[in-house]
Write a structure and sequence with these properties.
The chain is an alpha+beta fold and about 300 residues long. The protein has a single domain, classed as 4-Layer Sandwich (Double-stranded beta-helix). Helix content is about 25%, strand content about 20%. The chain has nine helices and 17 strands. The strands form five sheets. A seven-stranded mixed β-sheet has the order 1-2-3-13-5-15-4, covered by helices on one side. Strand 1 and strand 2 form a beta hairpin. The chain is globular and about 45 Å long.
Length: about 300
């Protein structure tokens, strides 16, 4: 039986029925899921029951898993997972005023996963094991819809623009500033195009978020102000879908096309989630010049 895809948001976000993520996905369904995420940007697979191995196996059908960055040495989960929970490495609740909780709170800012890597990530897969009794939703912003609605003057200005993205930039915004000299060196900003064209149909979208902290070749204050203006425009209600989590939800999104942010909840209760993320197909900037993925692959093969 073919999978069923039903759009939930005004312009994006869809639910996919007919998939049991514990089992290998038929090749034709993998193709249908890729087509669906190209169209909708975010997909919900409800009612799943996944252990870590099944979660990774489902994700790997769509590409190579990233090893996620985590500050500090101790992990609660294996390196292929980002721990989107309020638990420490010992499995106990983090104190809401702890440094680790402050660091994690940057996830409540608009961002695209791993835009601070030279090759930014492709898809993410976030699984809900335990949800908050109230609040704790995740919001998604459609950067394709934002681009389409943007006026020509700002489109022309954004075209060709390159911004520096760093994990430190987003963490500093929430008051976390404890980085070692080695971390400061390894987390220097990387260049990312402000406008991306990765879609098979050639559709463009903005590429923004809290990791972006400068615009190359522009006055720092002016460049940051323009990025903030684009972010505010793209996160207007008509471009945003808010997902209220249920246990067993698996949500897949395309980091190249949408931003997301977690919403606050009472951190005295657990919210346990884990995320896999796929390695991207290539950089968005080569030799200081924005480049789309199709062009990069042609250069790589030539």
């Amino acid at each position: 039986m073919p999978i069923q895809v039903e759009q939930l948001g005004q312009t994006f976000f869809a639910v996919v029925k007919g998939i049991d993520a514990r089992e290998p996905t038929p090749r034709e369904d993998v193709r249908s899921i890729v087509d669906a995420i190209d169209d909708h940007g975010v997909l919900l697979f409800p009612g799943q029951t996944l252990n870590e191995e099944q979660h990774m196996a489902f994700s790997r059908q769509f590409g190579e898993l990233e090893v996620t960055y985590q500050k500090g040495r101790k992990r609660r989960l294996r390196a292929e997972f980002a721990d989107a929970s309020n638990l420490g490495a010992d499995g106990e609740l983090l104190a809401p005023n702890s440094e680790r909780a402050k660091y994690n709170r940057a996830n409540q800012l608009w961002h695209s996963d791993a835009s601070f890597r030279a090759i930014p990530s492709k898809y993410s897969f976030l699984y809900a094991e335990t949800v908050a009794s109230k609040d704790g939703e995740t919001e998604f912003a459609d950067e394709r819809g934002g681009w389409d609605a943007l006026d020509e003057e700002r489109k022309n200005r954004a075209e060709g623009m390159v911004a520096g993205h760093s994990l430190m930039t987003s963490r500093i915004k929430t008051g976390f500033k404890t980085f070692t000299p080695e971390e400061q060196e390894s987390l220097k900003p990387v260049p990312q195009s402000v406008v991306r064209t990765h879609d098979p149909k050639g559709r463009k979208n903005l590429y923004l978020g809290s990791h972006a902290g400068e615009v190359y070749g522009e006055d720092p204050e002016t460049g940051v102000k323009f990025l903030e203006e684009l972010l505010e425009f793209t996160t207007q209600p008509q471009f945003v879908y808010c997902h209220k989590w249920s246990v067993g939800d698996l949500v897949m999104w395309d980091n190249r096309r949408v931003m997301h942010r977690g919403r606050p909840w009472d951190e005295n209760e657990p919210r346990i989630m884990r995320r896999t993320t796929l390695v991207g197909d290539g950089p968005t900037v080569v030799d200081g010049r924005p480049i789309n993925e199709a062009e990069y692959l042609r250069l790589k093969l030539s």
